[in-house]
Amino acid sequence: MVGVPSLKAARSSIVIGWLMVAGVAIAIAALAVGATLSTTLYGVPIAISFLLAALHASSIPLAIPRPLLAGVISAASVLLFAVVQSGSDAAPWPWAVVTLVTHSVTLVLVGLQARRWIAVASWATASLATIAVALVLPRYVDAPAINIIIAASISGVAVAGGIVWREWREIRAQLIRARSESSEEHEFRVIAEEKTRIARELHDIVAHSMSIINVQASTAVFRHQGVPEPVAREFGEIAEAARGAIAELRGVLGVLREDGSPLALAPQPGLEEIPALVEAASRSGVTIALEGDDSRELPPVGEPAALAAFRVVQEAISNAIRHAPDAAIRVRVSHDPTAMTVEVVNDASEHGIRPVGSGHGITGMRERVAAVSGDIRTGATEAGGFSVVARIPRREAGA
User: Fold this and answer.
1) Which GO terms of the molecular function aspect are on file (predicted)?
2) How many CB atoms lie within 10 A of CB 184?
3) Is it the case that residue 248 has pLDDT exceeding 60?
4) CB 387 within 8 A of CB 378
């Protein structure tokens, strides 16, 4: 990514270099032909012919680095040639062919390099000045309007060509930049989504396990009679270490947290693992019950929906254990033909330990349920407890 701008700049320099070489070559040819024809066909003194031809030819290479100056020089040269060549009836007037070609090439380059008004102003000045010369100067040859119209039309096409070429280059450059920015944005989004997935998995798995350890260690001396004082202190230290690990984990989650998350590719738990999850929580001394209905006659649940249901139950149990360790918990998973409903409700707590929460758990549950087009409601119950109710659409397995 770092070397791309340098490569583009090098290519641009090479193109400009070749344009300069081509411009100098065309200028030399225009000088040789223009000076010769001006003297032989129009009878202009050789010195004046050479100076005017050199002046006009110089506008071609100048159009690349100095388009405004080149436009002024070309328009002035056209006017001067019309004046000095007006006394001959042996060649086209007011513009000789070489003058028209030189002016047109200059206008193409000016239209390509500069703003539109510079090229248009140079073209309009040369054309209007030529009309003025044809009207006011005495001459030996008629200057039919058709000659001026043809010359102005050809040079006008040159201006339009340069401007269109420039516009095409700018549009192409914008498309390239937009494509590059889109690619970079996609890379950043992928990274952010992966960070979010990691944060969610850390919270769902590690925080849940640490919460169980904290509650088991904190309540061990109450659940087992006659625990020696040294053992009780060790349980307290274990609980304190678990709480510290949870606090540090929240800091890591704050760094990783971003919106959005792709589905994990590794095998993930589903509805079948919910009973084991409830049993593991009950071993920590929490009163917890699992309820459900028969879903064998219904279409199978897809892996994303099953994973979302499992994570909702896991996080809701973790929250209940952290905030109300002495409260009873009820888990219910019910099914209907279109969706399944996951409900986790805990009773009010009288002696609950309430560590400061970061909100990552509820945020993670909402994200998981939203990812499978479901909805979730969380809030306090009338009895003083807390409930989490998620309705998740059924998906065919593999969908």
Assistant:
1) ATP binding; phosphorelay sensor kinase activity; protein dimerization activity
2) 11
3) yes
4) yes
- Distance in angstroms (rounded) separating the CA atoms of residues 339 and 270: 15
Question: Tokens representing 71?
Answer: 């436009």
Q: Give the residue carrying structure tokens 């409601």.
A: 377
* pLDDT for 2 beyond 50: no
Query: pTM value?
Result: 0.42
Residue that is written with structure tokens 């998906």 in the block:
395
Nearest to 73 by CA among 90, 52, 92: 52
Average pLDDT over residues 205-230: 75
Decide: 20 and 64 in contact? Cβ < 8 Å.
yes
Mean pLDDT of 353-377: 75
Mean pLDDT of the residues in the chain: 78
Token pair recorded at residue 399: 């969908």
- The residues, any chain, with a CB within 8 Å of residue 120's CB and separated by 6 or more, are 159
Phi, psi at 94, each rounded to 5°: -90, -15
- DSSP lists the bridge partners of residue 331 as 290, 344
Confidence bin at 11 (pLDDT 50/70/90): low
**Residue recorded with tokens 């109450």:** 222
Are 335 and 298 contacting, i.e. CB atoms less than 8 angstroms apart?
yes
Cα(172)–Cα(170) distance, integer angstroms: 5
Structural element, H or E, at residue 391: strand 386-393
Name the more confident of 286 and 106. 106
**How many residues are recorded in the chain?**
399
Task: Quote the pLDDT of residue 297.
Answer: 60
Supply 279's token pair.
């049993």
Cβ neighbours for 69, distance < 8 A, ≥ 6 positions apart: 62
Domains of the chain: 3-143 (no CATH), 185-393 (3.30.565.10)
Bridge partners for 339 per DSSP: 393
Q: What is the pLDDT of residue 87?
A: 64
The residue ranking higher by pLDDT, 43 or 106, is: 106
The mean per-residue pLDDT over the stretch 238-252 comes to 73
Is the pLDDT assigned to residue 104 strictly greater than 70? yes
User: Beta 329-335 vs 288-292: how paired, if at all?
Assistant: parallel
Residues 6+ apart with CB under 8 A from 61: 20, 23, 24, 27
Q: What is the pLDDT of residue 397?
A: 44
CB 246 within 8 A of CB 211: yes
**H-helix or E-strand spanning residue 37:** helix 3-40
Instruction: Sort strands 339-346 and 375-380 into parallel, antiparallel or unpaired.
Output: unpaired
Residue 398: strand, helix, or coil: coil
